[in-house]
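User: I've been going back and forth on whether these two constructs are worth ordering. Before I decide, could you fold them both?

Assistant: Sure. I'll take them in the order you sent them. The first construct and its structure tokens:
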Amino acid sequence: MPGTLSGLQVCQLIKDSDDLRDTQVIMLTARGSADDRQAGLNAGADEYLVKPFSTLKLLEVIESLERSI
């Protein structure tokens, strides 16, 4: 992710914010190891998708998260 913060840091900031903590976060990444996935989920990601993924898979994840609200 370009900039000074990593995606993990941004996710953690969202989940730590009183105003944003209920925001659903889907991490879209090229990092596919088990440790990377666990780090994303530990940072607060609700889902973790590794590139490449299909548009259909992304839509399924979005719909699943919408149902859980």
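The second construct, handled the same way:
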Amino acid sequence: MSTEATGMEYAAPDLEALKFNADGLIPVIVQDDENDQVLMLAWMDREALRRTLGEGRVTYWSRSRGEYWRKGDTSGHRQYVRSVAADCDGDTLLVRVLQQGAACHTGTRSCFDGRELTGAVGDPDGPDGEPSTGDAAAQTGPQAPVG
């Protein structure tokens, strides 16, 4: 058991208790251990997780190619494992890595660089349910059909 800052105890996750989907996969959020930037989302099966925990390099399962892959084996942009954690439901993993070079296949540091969607932004100091910024549709709500 471990104790969080709240003083509550929690059990370390049992690998057998992880919840893989119907295809035997679990989503993996990959985060830079040095600056907390979210780098990418990928998938693992049990074997990819076993390899990741045993080798110190992250192994993923490619849904499109149907094979295992490790970031950097062809590009040189490697990911070295710093920690692996399961979320509270055991259905998602967070892998913190030391990232060398770009994480995204497009060459950007993160797969999310320059891809922000426009929309409402919540404001904890504003009235509940009222966006503080964003596009006009988000601020005014759905529009009635014309005609």
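Notes on the second construct follow. The chain has a mean pLDDT of 85. Strands lie at 2-3, 9-10, 26-32, 38-44, 59-62, 67-70, 79-86, 93-99.
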